[in-house]
Design brief:
CATH superfamily of the largest domain: NAD(P)-binding Rossmann-like Domain
Radius of gyration: 22 Å
Structural class: alpha/beta
CATH class of the largest domain: Alpha Beta
Mean pLDDT: 87
Number of domains: 2
Number of strands: 11
Order of helices and strands: EEHEHHEHEHEEEHEHEEH
Number of helices: 8
Largest sheet: 7 strands, mixed
Length: 228
């Protein structure tokens, strides 16, 4: 995205909204709609139409004034902007409960993503498979990355080993990490690392719920008294 030869920086929050726009557009496509107004699309996500138009303006002109957007064309444009016109190979590192649950999540193997390898250091797991995907030893990661063309690593290892595992991931040549471990990881500048901290999100929800309580409410909200 350039303007007069100068690279425009797209805010991260805008990129996040693009995936939400795409999800709505795909639903409208499934329902047989062909066009959608900016007001309709924005309302689906409780946004102002001006915010929607500003987000899309980073990437070009997509709609016709008074006519709205062609859903198929806009959805395809967003897929390309988000890199979903191609398939990204993923390695899940840490085949415990969370890693196995993510493997079974259909969303990972749809719309541009594919779990290509599982990685662990447990001798009882290495060499076996889950859902038809082979489990390799962490020591073999560099070879697996080259063989499977892995671009994304999902880290689901225990917190104490997360940073050391991330270093192995970076040395293996992977440039994007989704980190589920509850520790901060600081990779080199050329590597993207995004944290997914479910516990922190729940604490934020807890804070907001506490703020909704009226004075005198039980600190445990609307919990009923036990039956005697």
């Amino acid at each position: 995205m350039t303007e007069n030869g100068i690279q425009k920086r797209v805010p991260q929050v805008t990129v996040k909204r693009l995936s939400r726009y795409l999800r709505v557009l795909e639903r409208f496509q499934e329902e047989g709609s062909e066009t959608i107004l900016s007001e309709e699309l924005a309302n689906e996500l409780h946004l102002k139409p001006s915010q929607l138009r500003k987000d899309l303006a980073y990437f070009g002109e997509f709609g016709t004034r008074g006519m709205g957007y062609n859903i198929e064309r806009l959805a395809e444009a967003l897929r390309r902007i988000l890199g979903l016109h191609r398939q990204w190979a993923i390695a899940i590192i840490g085949v415990g409960n969370l890693g196995t649950a993510l493997l079974r999540y259909k969303g990972l193997n749809e719309k541009g993503f594919r779990v290509a390898a599982l990685i662990d250091d447990d001798p009882e797991k290495v060499g076996s498979s889950r859902s038809g995907i082979h489990i390799y030893h962490i020591d073999d990661l560099p070879e697996v990355v080259k063989e499977k063309n892995i671009q994304i690593a999902i880290l689901t290892v225990p917190a104490p080993s997360a940073r050391a595992t991330a270093e192995i991931v970076v040395k293996a040549g992977i440039k994007a990490i989704l980190n589920f471990a509850p520790v901060s990881i600081k990779p080199p500048p050329e590597v993207i690392c995004m944290p997914v901290d479910i516990s922190s999100e729940l604490k934020i929800l807890s804070h907001h719920l506490t703020g909704l309580e009226e004075p005198g409410d039980s600190p445990r909200g609307h919990e009923k008294s036990p039956v005697k």
